[in-house]
Amino acid sequence: MFEDMRWIPALAIMAVLFFLSAQPDLGTGWPWDLPLRKAGHMAAYGALWLALLYAVGERRPALATALALAYAVSDEWHQSFVPGRTGTVTDVAIDALGVGLAAAAWVWWRTGRNQVSPSGGRKRPPPGEEVSPFGRRKRRPPGDVTASRARSR
Predict the structure, then answer these.
(1) What's the rounded Cα separation, in Å, for the pair 38 and 3?
(2) How far apart are CA 20 and CA 18, in angstroms?
(3) pLDDT given for residue 9 in this prediction
(4) Confidence of residue 36 (pLDDT cuts 50, 70, 90)
(5) CA 94, CA 73: separation in Å to the nearest integer?
(6) Cβ contacts of residue 24 below 8 Å, gap of 6+?
(7) CA distances to 13, 27, 84, 102, 108 from 35, in Å
(8) By the 8 A CB rule, do 105 and 47 touch?
(9) Which of 121, 24, 32, 21 is CA-nearest to residue 76?
(10) Residue 14 in this model has a pLDDT that exceeds 90
(11) Which alpha helices (H) appear in the chain, and where do they start and end?
(12) Which residues lie below 8 Å from residue 56, measured CB to CB, with a gap of 6+?
């Protein structure tokens, strides 16, 4: 049951995006309106990717990416039916950029972005442990020696 609840953040973000896409006009006429809306696109789809990654599991980032991009395409298609709005490939590309930036940040976080030793080398988690990007420590199964073999080479 609790695993199903992992989808709630992603579904909530999708609902907000759907609601905003259904509005006939979100423009204010302010000069910074367009850049801020496009930055909002990137931030929203980056957040959606992270929420989808949380839902599908951090070992399946490609699935989270595919779902986020599929939603971006469907969202633009939905906008094409709203009076005063158009669905554009450019917006899908901006959404994809947000997904890509979120994925890059996740990879940076996951590879130990702040684990630098005083000598300048990267610190590694203790043998048998790894840290997930969501802050949880994971223990590797006792028979998993692939990481230690790769490290010794």
Answers:
(1) 33
(2) 6
(3) 94
(4) confident
(5) 11
(6) 82, 83, 84, 85
(7) 21, 11, 19, 19, 26
(8) no
(9) 21
(10) yes
(11) 8-21, 33-56, 61-79, 89-110, 146-152
(12) 63, 64, 67
Q: 89-110 and 61-79 helices cross at what angle (nearest 10)?
A: 160
Q: Is 132 helix (H, G, I), strand (E, B) or coil?
A: coil
Between vectors from CA 115 to CA 111 and to CA 117, what angle results, nearest 5°? Answer: 135
The region, left, alpha or beta by phi > 0 then psi within -120 to 50, assigned to residue 29 is left
d(CA 54, CA 69): 16
Alpha carbon dihedral 131, 135, 137, 138, in 10-degree steps, equals -70
CA torsion, ordered 52, 55, 58, 62, to nearest 10 deg: -40
| Residue type at 127 in one-letter notation | P
Domain extents for the chain?
4-110, 120-153
Which stretch of 42-51, 60-69, 72-81, 136-145 has the lowest confidence by average pLDDT? 136-145
Query: pTM of the entire structure?
Result: 0.70
Q: What is the mean pLDDT of residues 73-96?
A: 90
- Which segment of 12-21, 95-104, 139-148 scores lowest on mean pLDDT? 139-148
Place of tokens 């973000």: 13
Asked whether 54 and 99 are in contact (CB, 8 A), the reply is no
